[in-house]
Design brief:
The chain is an all-alpha fold. It is built from ten helices and no strands. Helix 2 packs antiparallel against helix 9, helix 8 runs antiparallel to helix 9 and helix 9 packs antiparallel against helix 10. It starts with 8 loop residues before the first helix and ends with a helix. 30% of the residues are buried.
Length: 315
Amino acid sequence: MSAQINIPDELKADIPQNKWGKVLAATPIVMTVIATLLAGLSSSEMTRAQYDRSLAAQHQSKAGDQWSYFQAKRLRAALQRNTLDLLRSTTAVHPLDPRTLATRLAGTPGAALLATPGGQLACDTLSHGALPASGPDTVSDARIAAALAAADAGQSDADLARLLKPVKEADLAAAVQEAFARVRAFDTLLKPINQAADALEQELIRPAAADATDPVARDFIYARLGYSAQRYDRESRQNQVIAQLYELQVRQSNLSAERHHARSQRFFYGMLAAQMGVIIATFSMAARKKNFLWALAAAAGSGAVAFAAYVYLFV
C-alpha cells in the first residue's frame, strides 16, 4: 500500500553529509517500511476476521441440525406420552411382571430370548419403568457450564462475552466432542435393550398369537411406550446440550471476528500515521526548518509504532 521512496538528487545535495544528514535521509525509508508492515498486519487481521465469520456460520448450521434433532425427539416423546394417556383411559394396564411375561412366552422363541443377557436387561428395564443408570449430561468444564447457564438464563451478550473470554476454542471444541461421546455411549447402552424389546414385542403381537384382550401383551406395550418416552426425552436433552455448545462456538467465533476487525482498523490507522511521517520527512528535506519537520515526522513514526505495539499486545 506504500510506494517506494526515491529521494531526488537535488534534495540529496541539500542534505548535510554528516550523521544528522544520514538520519534525515533514512527517515522516509524507515517510515515506508513501518507503513508497509502495518498495512500487512491490517490485511492479516481482516482475513482472520472473515475466517471467524465463516466459522461462526458453520457452527450455526451445526447448531440448527442439533436443534432439529432436539425438536423431533421431544415430539416423539410427547406422542409416546399421549398414547400412554389414551391407553390408560381406555383399558386397564399394570406394570410389567417378568414372571408373567416368562410364563406367557413359554414354549416360544421369545422364551430363549428372554433368557439371554439382552432379554433379561430389557425385561428388567421395562418392568422397573426407568432407564438404566448412565453418566450425567452436564459439561465437565466449569467455565463452559457457567456460560451455558448464562445463555439459558437469557443474559446479555456482554455477560456471555465476559464468561467466554477465558475459554479457549480448543476447550469448547473438546466439550462438543465430549457431548457427542455421551450420545454414543448412551446409544451403546440402550442398543441391546432396544433389540431385545423389538424381538419380544414381535413374539407377543405376531399374527398367530395376537389377541386384543391379552393382558400381558397390553402391559408390555404400555411399559414399552413409557420406556420410549423416557429414552426420547433423554436423547433430546443430549441434543439440546450439543446445540447450546455450538451456539457458544458461534458467539465465540463472532467475538473473535469483532476483535480482529477492530485490530485491523487500528493497524490501518497506524499505517496512515506512518505514511504521514513519510510525507513530512520528505518535505523536511526541502524545508529550511528541517529540525522541526523531522521531529514531527519522527513523532508520527514513533507514535505509529507504539500504537501498533499496543494493538498487537493488548487489543
